[in-house]
Design brief:
transmembrane helix; 5 helices; 34% helix; disordered C terminus; alpha+beta; Umud Fragment, subunit A; transmembrane; disordered N terminus; single chain; membrane; Signal peptidase I; flat; Peptidase_S26
């Protein structure tokens, strides 16, 4: 007769550590979402509004992708230098966010984008004014735009992996899925490199395109071969351009231009999945080892 000894539970400590870490991450994410939803609700109920900058007219002060928060205000309470959001009377469905450059005698205000050469055509009156910008967060608007895709993807990933993936590989699938989710969201929203063509002007030595960077990463914008300009978020630059063929479109290209600490930061970000797997690890299997002892009949 063979006697066997089954050893179980050697992976229990690893299982508990992985479960605790995963649960802590889930709870932290839920807490952040709850805080954001609560803060947004309170802000709206108290008269505040929010919007995302979509055009580059405010330059580095409020570049493309900036999340702005506004409060109701009276023109009489505004000062030169304040940033306001208003609805132009000739385009009442649009929102424009520009800086106050003059207070007029009739109580209205003149506004202008920081990189614009002229003031806006119509003075802003109380009827036009949405509110004064009391806070603005560069780049956060990109996250807000991508949030629906991220949240939907996370829900599908967590539920799908819980139902169809073995326990041991569940954390690996979720890490890989999260990485792919961020990549797909980035392709949809395109927050990292976003050059915006403002104008094309003819000069003595050809055509020059004025470009504003709306992407989060330092960007090198290339026009004619051998000509480029390096821009950070909200900065304005100019490059000579030409069409590839007669009557064809003028071509400019933008690409990330990472040096120094930017390069170090991107390497660290790319290593986050590796660091996470190192900290959390795989869920350990419960081993079953068989140790043969005596064989034969019991006395």
């Amino acid at each position: 007769m063979a006697y066997t000894a089954t050893v179980q539970g050697l992976g229990g400590a690893a299982d508990q550590r992985s479960a605790r870490t995963s649960m802590a991450a889930v709870l932290a994410g839920l807490a952040v979402c709850l805080v954001l939803v609560t803060a947004g609700t309170v802000w709206r109920l108290t008269g505040g509004k929010w919007a995302i900058i979509e055009t580059p007219s405010m330059g580095v002060a409020a570049p493309v992708g900036t999340l702005i928060l506004t409060r109701p205000a009276l023109p009489a309470d505004l000062s030169v230098g304040d940033i306001v959001t208003y609805r132009p009377r000739n385009m009442p469905d649009n929102l424009i966010t520009h800086r106050v450059v003059a207070i007029l005698d009739d109580g209205s205000v003149q506004v202008r984008g920081d990189i614009n050469g002229a003031v806006d055509p119509f003075p802003v009156t109380q009827d036009d004014l949405v509110g004064e910008v009391v806070a603005h967060y560069r780049g956060l608007g990109w996250l807000v735009r991508g949030l629906p895709t991220l949240l939907l993807g996370i829900v599908v990933l967590v539920i799908g992996s819980a139902l169809y993936v073995p326990t041991r590989w569940r954390s690996s699938v979720r890490i890989l899925g999260s990485t792919m989710l961020v990549a797909v969201t980035s392709l949809i929203v395109r927050p990292f490199v976003h050059p915006v063509l403002v104008t094309v002007a003819a000069t003595g030595d050809g055509l020059h395109a004025t470009i504003v960077s709306g992407g989060l990463l330092p960007t090198r914008v290339t026009g004619l071969p051998g000509h480029h300009v390096d821009l950070h978020l909200g900065e304005v630059g100019s490059v000579p351009v030409a069409a590839n063929a007669a009557g064809g479109p003028l071509m400019v290209n933008g690409a990330p231009h990472l040096t120094g600490w930017w390069l170090v930061a991107m390497i660290v970000v790319c290593l986050i999945p590796l660091l996470w797997t190192t900290i959390v690890g795989l869920t350990a299997e419960l081993p079953t080892d068989t140790y043969p002892t005596d064989e034969g009949r019991l006395p």
